Known about the structure:
The complex is a heterotrimer of chains A (about 500), B (about 350) and C (about 325). Chain A contains 17 helices and 20 strands. Chain A has helices spanning about 50-60, 80-85, 105-110, 115-130, 145-160, 175-190, 205-210, 230-240, 295-305, 325-335, 340-345, 355, 370-385, 400-415, 430-445, 460-465, 485-505; strands at about 10-25, 25-35, 40-45, 65-70, 75, 90-95, 165-170, 195-200, 210-215, 220-225, 260-270, 275-280, 285-290, 310-315, 320, 335-340, 420-425, 450-455, 465-470, 475-480. A 6-stranded mixed sheet of chain A has the order 6-7-8-3-9-10, with helices on both faces. In chain A, strands 16-17-18-13-19-20 form a 6-stranded mixed sheet, sandwiched between helices. Chain A has a 4-stranded antiparallel sheet with strand order 2-1-4-5, with helices on one face. In chain A, α13 packs across α14 and α16 (about 460-465) runs antiparallel to α17 (about 485-505). Chain A is globular. By secondary structure, chain B is mostly helical. Chain B has one domain: ABC transporter involved in vitamin B12 uptake, BtuC (Orthogonal Bundle). In chain B, α1 packs across α2 and α9 crosses α11. Chain C is mostly helical and about 325 residues long. Helices cover about 75% and strands about 0% of the residues of chain C. Chain C is built from 14 helices and 4 strands. The longest helix of chain C is centred in the last third of the chain and has 42 residues, at about 295-335. Chain C is globular and about 75 Å long. Chains in contact: A-B, A-C, B-C. At the B-C interface, α6, α12 and α14 of B face α5, α6, α12 and α14 of C.
Amino acid sequence: MTEIKPSGQRETLIKADNVWKFFGSVSVLKGVDLTLESGQIHALLGGNGAGKSTLMKIIAGLHPVDRGNLYVCGEEANHLTPVLSRQLGIHLVPQEPMLFPNLSVEENVLMHMSGNRTELRSRLLTLIKEVGSNLDLHTPAGQLEVADQQMVEILRGLIRRARILILDEPTSALTPREVSRLFERMRALSEQGVGIFFISHKLGEIREIAEVVSILRDGRVVLAGPPKSFSDSEIVRAMTQVAGKSALDASDAPAPYKGGREILRVENLCGEGFARVSFALHEGEVLGLGGVVGSGRTELAETLYGIRRAARGRVSLDERDVTHTTPIQSLDQGIVYLPEDRQSSGLFVDAPLSWNSSALVLYREPSWLPLKAEEERFQQYVQSLGIVCASSSQSVRTLSGGNQQKILLAKCLAAKPKVLILDEPTRGVDVAVRADIYRLIDELAAEGVAILLISSDHEEVQRLSHRVLVMDHGYPGGELRGSEITVDAIAQLSFGVTAEEGASSC
Amino acid sequence: MLIRFLQNNREASVAAIILILFVLLGLVDTSYLSFDTVVSIYNNSLILVVIAIGSTLVMATRGLDVSIGSIMGLSAAIAGILMNGGYGIGLSVAVALFVGLLCGLFNGFMVAVLRVPAIVATLGTLGLFRGLVHLSTGGSWIEGLPEGFKGLSHAVFLGLSPFAWIVLILLIGTHCWLRYTAFGRSLFAVGDNREGARLLGIRVRSVQLTAYAINGILAAFAGIIFAAQIGFIPNTAGNAMEMRAIASSVLGGVSLLGGTGTVVGAGLGAYFMTSIDSVLVMLRLDAFWNDMIAGAILLLVLVADGKIREAMGASLRYHKYRKFLEPESSSSSAKTPEIKELSEVRK
Amino acid sequence: MNGLRFLKRWETVLAVLLVGEILVFGAINPAFLRPSTLLFSTSDFVHVGIVALALTLVIITGGIDLSIGSVMGLAAITLGLLWVNGVNIWIACIGALGVGCLTGILNSVAIHIAKVNPLVITLGSSFLFSGAALVLSGLGGASGYEGISGFDASFVEMANLEVLGLPFPLVIFFVATVVFMLLLHRTRFGRYIYLIGQNQRAAKYAGVPQFRTLTIAYALTGIMAALSGLVLASYFGSARSDFGSAALMPAITAVVLGGSSIYGGSGTILGTALAVLLVGYFQTGLQIIGVSSHVSNALSGGLLVLVVALRSLTEMGRAQYLQWRVLKSVGQAAR
Lengths: 506, 347, 335
């Protein structure tokens, strides 16, 4: 099966030479050069949409190379298929678990592996112990929590004796204890000569484990070398630097908050994924909701909007009780929610643009649709938001990510919000659109709309918010206002507890 | 606890429903409760069991085949024509099975390679294959099949015919194949998460193609049993069997969304669908109650199943968020001052 | 503006195919081109069209209704039973339509409660309804599989009535086409239908009343299936419980051929209506030039296979071509 070389003599496992990849007319990779040697742990770093995951999927055979060359162990491999890639000893642990929900953990891990079942099972049991997990082999994978699902994906990669292992953000749902166990396994594998690509957003982890780091931005490798040769700020600058003016100019600050009437009041709210949340939101105020992914912020927003039910507590809008409402009632009261995942819950990607912009106000329209008014409304948003499109009847899918996000914003604005909940409003958009959206948020606040801004980008929270509430594992972690709002302070509050835990277990 | 057991062992729930049916029968007349009844219902259910096995394979890959009735008819007609044309029984049956294989491969090609939605593709071939039946027979019935062929459906051992034994072996064989071999499991993997299966290096298209091909062969085999059992082949042979096959599989716990189910469950489902017929006759009720009872039970099972799943989902969700949802008397009161403070600051 | 865009539409392709088909059959047998033949041969298939229109709505929502054939039979038997028991024929018709509406509501409620694939639920209910039709006709003394006949003459004549020179069933079909077109493309309800089919999750976030919309769609399908059953009962002069069993697959074929995606989200009423005529004339045309009805059935199946396979291939080809074009244009910039 896999040939394992002693770590002394190194072999080039992967060599990417000016690799390009297009999705539709959008280029995701713009000439990437990269090499992976046997026994090397190679970290990849980059913002959303920088092309890390795409590059890894190409190596795993899920997408073909459109231009340039990819070599696996010296052989040209531009037309990999998943089957071929597996035969070459490449295994990808994807970012989003791709499990078989109806099959058991054991079947999920051992699926499509050759060899004696009993032997494989005992190897799996040993491995589970080694990574310090307590997975039950017979549970259907669909019933596992996200962290355990991710563990199953990782086990799949570890048990397969791959020559090239790709771990795409494996640590995002793991506890610090599990992370350190995983790192032990990774080191053991690299000593056996396995080459590992490791994608992570956490600089600390990369410094701890990686021999080489490559930083991708906008489809290119912009910085590469051993992690210790770069300072943190060098790395962050490489990731975020933009040609021309930076959109995240530190001097940029929200328009001064003039103070306004209290409009939304949340008292001791408990629900699915968060508890004891209390805050008040005022007209014209941008309240940032900071924290890490999975800290209960989206669940809180969905509860306010009426997608999920609150367990206890009270929400009032203009003194009226709106704790238990349906989305239609929320819309009617002026609470509008912009979902974080625009493809799956925000937009109707195959529907015409104008249908999307009027989706939230449809219920207010007469049964006989005024198509002309709808078209006019759409054109108005095309102008005010600067949406680039050919006609109102083209489908959302044909637009770029940034314009899609603007359509989503148009959909929310059409509902004339009093309270606007923005969940990751700049996810996956380019710098220019990001600047547009920031300006828009400033303007909306100036017009008196109360905005609850959820973002995992601390700089974004700092740039936009008058006040910041940080969520930590579902509980309010602290409040910052005025000059207290800094990236570091937000990070500290959102990681407050975890940093200590991480230190003690290492 | 019981509900959970039945949920996880759909075969057991179908078996329980069948048992209830027999108990009902026993209340009317105890003499019906005999091994003979069980065997005779099994003999009547052979065709349905075979195509239910095939449907299970296809549905496991998240596919669907509504053309099986037509494949049954076509294969039976081909076998009949060959036998009456003087060819040997073995050869005729082999050719008929081969025709079934071709039909199945054609369906599989449409679905796996051309990526036509399964129901649309097989809807087309449903008409196409049925037309081939009429073309091959010239529109007339095929009668006077050789006695040796019809004899295959007569009891030889323990009240079971050669066909009945073959079907039993087939059922057990397919069950083990699906459960214990890598390829069998990959059928379920493809149905459960196509992209995930692709990522692991499973040849998704070949797996789909194989499922449809085997399904075609099984449909052909069902057609042959049909011909042997009734002794002649009408042009409508196999008509509307696809719906019964899918209903049997669904009743037996096979999901149309792929990834779950066993052939044993599907076989029990088929047995149940057949037993309604026989039981009605024994209860001296008119046969026309059959479909209504089958439909009502199928709907009840589906709705109950949905309710149970919903309840389990809710409890799973509750456990996931338990620490946030359960009231904590001490901390919630301790937190109240903070709100006051917050609002005071704002004012 | 874009004057040629309509050429790319699937409806245009269907219309061209329809005209071409009529011309080809006419060239082989000029009798086919006689207006009376063209008009009155529709009575053989127009009942499929009536139910296919409503089925289009359900399929656009991403659902399906396999029980339409059974509902056709059930409605016809209901009509027969009411008539036999002395109810006025027109009131009996309303009763039958009411039963159709109820079946649709039952389907929708069952789908809502069980939260499983509509395919499975309506498969189950198709057994239930066809079984109910059999039971009713059995209990009604129509000795099991026999039909109920001897309807009021005015009802039987309906199918042969001419309105403005058109056969009455065809008029029903045309009127229904217009009504459903307006309903689907111009009303809020129609918009909801599309939105649910395109992205159920986003529809939930946008507050679309899903259960209500779906229930209306399924109820309309039930009513139209019942109407279709009544048209058949009038055409044949009798009501049978297994009336509609042969209409299910052609109805789905018409919707799919008409351009609706079986996964939901797209489709038009005009497409379905054109596809009904296309398949219907295909079969009558074949029969007029001397092909047996069984073979023409097969060829209709073949037509569906061919069309969907071609559509699938052109889609793949188009994707390849776009990719190639992008590569070519960007490639020059890159090098």
